[in-house]
Amino acid sequence: MTSPLLSLNSQQWESLCDGCGRCCLVKLQDEDTDELYYTNLACEFLDHNTCRCTEYPDRHNKKPECVVLSKQNLDVLEWLPTTCAYRRFDRGEAPLQNLAEISVRNRVVCEKGIHPDLHEDHIIDWIDYN
Ligand code: SF4
Ligand code: SF4
Questions:
Q1: Nearest ligand to residue 47 Cα
Q2: Pocket residues: Cβ below 6 A from ligand 2
Q3: C-alpha separations of 130 from 26, 30, 37, 82 in Å
Q4: Which residues contact 55 (CB under 8 A, 6 or more apart)?
Q5: Exposure class string for 103-113: b at 16+ Cβ within 10 A, else e
Q6: Whose CA is nearest to atom 6 of ligand 1?
Q7: Quick one: what percent of the chain has pLDDT higher than 90?
Q8: Helical residues (DSSP H) of the chain, grouped into ranges
Q9: Residue 7: what pLDDT?
Q10: For the segment 80-115, what is each residue's pLDDT rounded down to a tens digit?
């Protein structure tokens, strides 16, 4: 089935993002099961106040592991939060209205300075992706 996302022009595409910041959290993947776990560790480039990327135009260069969702890369939708406006639009659902409820604002810490061995301690259960 064709995704309705494909019919959006670039302005509509960009304005769909509600700036919840959820996709900018560090995710861990179980090597055996492929299961994904969201953490409360925010990418170093996430502005904790606006929950927007401070390096948005150049984000892929600044952060190579930042996977950019695009019309050519819709597989990314699979691991975005179920609350994500793009996932909802793809399913024909309206965006969620209460941004305060889904925003990561005041709920996360910066990944910088947290040793990778400690990332598991930051796994959270308040973000679903499946
Ligand atoms: S999870 Fe979706 S709606 Fe939220 S910031 Fe990321 S792309 Fe935007
Ligand atoms: S580089 Fe920007 S868009 Fe990518 S994860 Fe970090 S804050 Fe989010």
A1: 2
A2: 24, 43, 45-46, 53, 55, 59, 62-63, 66
A3: 17, 15, 11, 7
A4: 45, 62, 63
A5: bbbeebeebee
A6: 23
A7: 96
A8: 10-16, 59-62, 85-90, 99-102
A9: 97
A10: 999 999 999 999 999 999 999 999 999 999 999 899
- Extract the tokens encoding 95: 């965006």
- Centroid of ligand 2 to alpha carbon of 16 (angstroms): 16
Quick: pLDDT tens for 13-63: 999 999 999 999 999 999 999 999 999 999 999 999 999 999 999 998 999
Gap between the Cα atoms of 82 and 78, Å rounded = 9
Q: How far is the CA of 35 from the centre of ligand 2 (A)?
A: 21
Counting ligands in written order, the one closest to the CA of 24 is 2
Q: Who contacts 37 (Cβ-Cβ below 8 Å, separation ≥6)?
A: 27, 28, 29, 30, 123
Q: Sketch the domain layout of the chain as residue ranges.
A: 4-122
